[in-house]
Amino acid sequence: MSDANATTPRVFIARHGETEWTINGRCTGNAEIPLTQNGISQVRGTGQMLVGPDKLIDPKKLLHVFSSPRKRAVDTLSILLGSEEKAHLENEGKLTVTEDITEWDYGDYEGLTPKEVTETRNKRGLPKWDIWTQGCEGGESAEEVQQRLDRLIQHIYKLQKPHLDGKSGEASNILVVAHGHILRAFTKRWLLYGMEFPFIMMMEPGAIGIMSYAHHSIEEPAILIGMGFPSST
Fold this sequence. Notes:
The protein has 9 helices and 6 strands. It is α/β, with parallel strands linked by helices. It has a 6-stranded mixed sheet. The two termini are about 20 Å apart.
């Protein structure tokens, strides 16, 4: 990584760990499905590898944290950062739990697999389900999801803009803890793509993704597709 890129603020996106419904691929929006023991281990392993002083996510360098209010996301945040660091961020007013980054409201499709959704639609003569263009019956449309994500992204821009040149010496990174579909939607909107744009992404439970800015510019939001980890010796 060039020195110029290394000083650019980051937006880390973290998906919650495994639940019983992620195992079998069920749409999990507002339902409060807890992390499995394996899900807890996933997040703990990610935290041990990537979170801490001088690691990828250094809590002391976090300007703000945004979390979905769903328990599986809040629990993931606590495990990822540790309860002490989370409490410290809360006390400093650097933690916001917000519906703006909660999972897509699946409405009538809650608890169903994509295959089951398509089957129910086929019986009514409806086309194969595409959440990015059709949204969810009884739940959120793509336009409604985009509206709340754009609101959150504008908030992040406002927080990070004073630090884009990397010279402030202050905490400038953001952490967003949420869910699989909404984080993929967040990535599309961060890159200024429409929700219908055919940008196929994968994100495992307990995984971390990284957004940033090209050329230190608020006008050039970017995805960091790879980075190096220099040796400490």
